[in-house]
Amino acid sequence: MMNDVLENRIRQYQPANALEQEHVLQEIMHQYIQMSLSRSGLFKHALFHGGTCLRIFFRTARFSEDLDILLRSPDSTFTWAVYVEHIRRDCEAEGIRFETVDKPAAGHAVRKIIPKTDSIGTPVLLDLPYGRHGRAKLRIKLEVDTNPPAGSAFETRFLTFLGPAAVTTRDLPSGFATKAHALLCRGYAKGRDWYGFLWYVDRRVIPRFGLLQNALHQAGPWAGQSLRVQFQARFAQPLPQIPQEPLGLSFVLETQHGVVRMAHHDHDDLEEQVLA
């Protein structure tokens, strides 16, 4: 029975090649783990967020590898141990065996584990569109931020593939705020950051600026500094009418050492400027 469910699910994705098929299998394992975490009660005091969250609940086009979670309030004593046992037990009931690699992070707020399984192929035999080595492993990285910046808002969404499971997620304005933080503070460029930025802009999401300001104060090149975040937007028609197409938007971050401006104008390329 479970094999039929999985095979039908894979066919719904219509993978175009073996690589896409691997992404699909990984995403299905994401949902098994999310279902187990929901049953374990984790989402009573934690939020799901990040690229995989957008992929699962908003069907973004980009496959995402990690499951990113943050606690609603800081807790330096958090461990994955009890939740790993839930994942192991729930997935074994479906014929999927996970082994878990714990990534020690002494002194770090982000706690990581990596569940791995080679059960797709042995013992779970599937009629897959493309060939796959029977012992190939799927790896899922879980990260939890035990000291998140204050200011996130949340909402409840539901997984339905394996049965109803409630998952508490960051709302989109909070997600946009942390994506803006990554773009402003990461020391190197990541394509997924710009992809996420454009995804939020295209949906007219306004960042949660209190969260962005708290995140900038907590971590990054402006940590601990006095700063102020402003948002500017130009629209095709004056407010209070609801604009159909924004001509552009920008963040202006005022710091002790100058101004950083990040802007998107009328579907042109993104700009990032550091102004003296």
Jot down its keywords:
alpha+beta, globular, Nuclear Transport Factor 2, Chain: A, 12 strands, single chain, 6-stranded mixed β-sheet, 7 helices
Q: Write out the CATH superfamily name of the largest domain.
A: JHP933, nucleotidyltransferase-like core domain
Q: Spell the H/E element sequence.
A: HHEHEHEEEEEEHHHEEEE
Q: Which strand-content bin applies to the residues?
A: 25-35%
Domain module tally: 2
Description:
This protein is α+β, with helices and mostly antiparallel strands and 276 residues long. The chain has seven helices and twelve strands. The strands form three sheets. Strands 1, 2, 3, 4, 5 and 6 form a six-stranded mixed beta sheet that branches. It has a four-stranded antiparallel beta sheet with strand order 9-10-11-12, covered by helices on one side. It has a two-stranded antiparallel sheet with strand order 7-8. β10 (246-255) and β11 form a beta hairpin. α2 (18-40) crosses α4, α5 runs antiparallel to α6 (191-202) and α5 (172-185) packs parallel to α7 (209-218). The longest helix has 23 residues, at 18-40. The model is unreliable at 235-248, 255-259 and 263-276 (pLDDT under 50).
Task: Provide a compact summary of the structure.
This protein is of the alpha+beta class. The chain contains seven helices and twelve strands. Strands 1, 2, 3, 4, 5 and 6 form a six-stranded mixed β-sheet that branches.
What's the helix and strand layout?
Blueprint: H1 2-13, H2 18-40, E1 46-49, H3 51-58, E2 66-71, H4 81-92, E3 99-103, E4 110-117, E5 138-139, E6 141-145, E7 154-159, E8 165-170, H5 172-185, H6 191-202, H7 209-218, E9 228-235, E10 246-255, E11 258-265, E12 271-275
Parallel strand pairs: 2-6
Antiparallel strand pairs: 1-2, 3-4, 4-5, 4-6, 7-8, 9-10, 10-11, 11-12
Helix pairs in contact: 1-2, 2-4, 5-6, 5-7
